[in-house]
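Treating backbone geometry as a discrete language has practical consequences that deserve illustration. In the encoding step, the backbone of a single protein was reduced to a row of integers, each denoting a local shape. The amino acid sequence and the backbone structure tokens for this protein are reproduced below.
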Amino acid sequence: MASRIAAFTALTLLAAGLAGCAHEKVGMDGYRWAYLADGGEAPRLAYGRPNSDDVVLMISCQPGRDRVNVSAVGLSGSEIVLASGRAESRFAAATVEDALSDGGLLEARGQASAPALEGFRKSGDLALLTKGERHSLAAESADRGYVRAFFKACGA
């Protein structure tokens, strides 16, 4: 529970300046992956604009367990859908009211070994599917080390 609250808080603080819907932000120039590791908190991987509060998606894990929390700002609905290559994973989600982000916070739980996350770990390819559209969150070559470090910290 404490790690879940910490992940919410971190995403909320990072996303305080997010304007518009998450699906409008993804795939835009300047968005990158960042690995956030703090000895006292769960490992986190965030997709957003470097050195800003503009974060679209955050994944946190429980090291040694096949569990992840996936959080997205500015989305609505009952699931977060991620894809990597042909693999697609649907994570049942709930909206969490958040005073600091526009449109609330959508959070889901799932397995770190979900097909889309497994594909992301191997290739760096990840997409967010919203309203029938595919929005690329692919890790650039410079960011793939962050993706590998996150999944290594998670025990995957």
The longest helix spans residues 2-14.
